[in-house]
Amino acid sequence: MRVLLVGAGGVGTAVTRIAARRTFFETMVVADYDPARSAAAVAALDGDGRFLAERVDAGDEAAVTALLARHGCDVLLNATDPRFVMPLFRAARAAGATYVDMAMSLSRPHAERPYEECGVKLGDEQFAEAGAWEEAGALALVGMGVEPGLSDVFARYAADELFDEIEEIGVRDGANLTVDGLDFAPSFSIWTTIEECLNPPVVYEAERGWYTTEPFSEPEVFDFPEGIGPVECVNVEHEEVLLVPRWVGARRVTFKYGLGQEFIDTLRTLHRLGLDGTDPVTVPGADGPVRVSPRDVVAACLPDPATLGERMHGKTCAGTWVRGVRDGAPREVYLYHVVDNQWSMAEYGSQAVVWQTAVNPVVALELLATRAWEGAGVLGPEAFPARPFLDLLTAYGSPWGMREQ
Amino acid sequence: MRVLLVGAGGVGTAVTRIAARRTFFETMVVADYDPARSAAAVAALDGDGRFLAERVDAGDEAAVTALLARHGCDVLLNATDPRFVMPLFRAARAAGATYVDMAMSLSRPHAERPYEECGVKLGDEQFAEAGAWEEAGALALVGMGVEPGLSDVFARYAADELFDEIEEIGVRDGANLTVDGLDFAPSFSIWTTIEECLNPPVVYEAERGWYTTEPFSEPEVFDFPEGIGPVECVNVEHEEVLLVPRWVGARRVTFKYGLGQEFIDTLRTLHRLGLDGTDPVTVPGADGPVRVSPRDVVAACLPDPATLGERMHGKTCAGTWVRGVRDGAPREVYLYHVVDNQWSMAEYGSQAVVWQTAVNPVVALELLATRAWEGAGVLGPEAFPARPFLDLLTAYGSPWGMREQ
């Protein structure tokens, strides 16, 4: 397998560190808009000749297609922010490569009833092109990070092995991470966090289909395992709600993020002030007025989450809570994966949230390389058998857990 | 009198509308960095030939000096934001003109103990040059808006006519303004509001001199008159605390701003995220990276407060609460000035806070023109007799009030 990894930020760099310990691929070309970032990621791998650094603009579809061809890559792994999903997805198709991402094409709220009806949903643009992928016998494996990704694998595992009927599948994400000396330090890309949290959350119900609510709706306190404890969780727009119902039967699917009240208040304030926006505003620059996106300025004022690992303490938990019936009796389980920041820093030099996102697409690439996973079309992780994935994740030194509620 | 008004924003434009109804001056040159703003302010005055529009960079001291000379102006009225105090103050001195402003040179926190000791205080840079003004027999009348300004006049009035001894002088500012359709709409320049509210508040005590506290310290609920009612007020850095003790005897001087809890929380969040900062950050621009000041971006995302008058409802109150002794008995009064937005919009087309700031320097200019106020050096409003000011303000159609507590 020859892989083009696009994006050498926190997650992309962690992908290289995890993949470097595996033998399933021959080459991984690491490409970034900033050539210093791809060079640094490759340089850190102690001369592993399978890795090469390149520069590419992820928004330039033709340049990405050419780069795939030049290196004879058969897989493109997208580790950029979701704005670049569509050009990379199309570049992979044009080059005849398999495509893997960790977040799907962006949504647009319903023009008149944004908090009741879906407009353009997450992934809609990708699924609209599914026919072309199927006809070509080509695979786009979408939403293959930790959430979406591992959370979808858990949903499939529950359906296959734990339940006869499923009432509700609720992805629940929570952490007890803190950063020394910083009052406010998101542990993941603030650009993506704002996008997820301020868009209308989407919910699936079998009778009603997909619909939206007000941001931060249906707050609940979820008790996370391994010492993290109870965290206030709210509905957030997330790919699992769009992916799971396509392949797994469930009456209701939700995603709730354990943001905590302070973080919710901060996001609400950014929204109230218009600082979450991506449309440019005009401000004074050194040589006259310039136009900038407020959300980019928010990101520039905050520390890069990938650089905070040394000062971070605590654990992050991704998981899927499932309620239903087994052998005629009610059953409720939480399938989860916890990463301790101290462990991920010591083992890989990557902070916990970034590492947890990165490990899952590497496991998936290995399953594709060994043909344990095969398919054609635009498919989510729950379209594939779950057991090989969970076993290989454990073999990577990062076991998952299950709690009967 | 020939006046150079620098700054044709909300306050500057209101100055022209108020001055246009008076006869004490021959010429008012209206100059702004944006020539469209000065032209619009002059054009709105229905052909009053005393007003002329010019373009000037308020940071370019030599250009301002030349403009004063070219038009033979004997007074410079500064209606820009406080970053331009020093170049305009020096340009006036260089041109031999009287200088009037509504905010004083900026402070810098104490390097080691910012929330206990003063560093560079508001106005320190101006007072450092007081000798040169005195020797030249020239006048810089500083802090001559509403707060500072009218609030200082009230302090002097209390000392002269209402008290034998003063224990405490506390400026208290509160409003019940709302803006239709907007959750968050500061009624005054957000740049200045952030500067005032997030700098360490300064307090004066006779035994201790000036000292600072944590932001938002000593919360109290103050009951404002004319239907505004109780508002939560907190200590804020403001010029009155630096000006009043120089000319008026009082054991303690404070300034508290009726911000309300939501506004305080918003400012705290901006600070926590670094979005209150003025040092540039690097963000993507249309043609590559650009450097912008986060606080300018916050301002650009919010509506210009001067444009909100039509959608604003309510009243704003500026005033000075004084506690002391008269004829051997304790006394407590609140001297205040309330502007109803509906009235200021109908009469002048200016929103209440902007109009209230603008009327006071026009009254002061008229007192200087008629020689009711005379002096040399760098002087605050409390250095002059209060009664003529308060009478003329009433003659402008905007009476003040007094409440015995």
Automatic annotation (TrEMBL), chains A, B:
InterPro entries: NAD(P)-bd_dom_sf, Sacchrp_dh-like_C, Sacchrp_dh_NADP-bd
Record key words, sorted: ATP-binding, Nucleotide-binding
Gene3D superfamilies on file: Dihydrodipicolinate Reductase, domain 2 (3.30.360.10), NAD(P)-binding Rossmann-like Domain (3.40.50.720)
Record-linked SUPFAM superfamilies: NAD(P)-binding Rossmann-fold domains
Keyword Nucleotide-binding: yes
GO molecular function terms attached to this record: ATP binding
Highest taxon of source: Bacteria
Pfam families: Sacchrp_dh_C, Sacchrp_dh_NADP
Start and end residues of each Saccharopine dehydrogenase-like C-terminal domain: 145-397
Domain (Saccharopine dehydrogenase NADP binding): residue spans on this chain: 3-141
PANTHER family: CARBOXYNORSPERMIDINE SYNTHASE
Protein name per Swiss-Prot or TrEMBL: ATP-binding protein
Species whose genome carries this gene: Streptomyces galbus
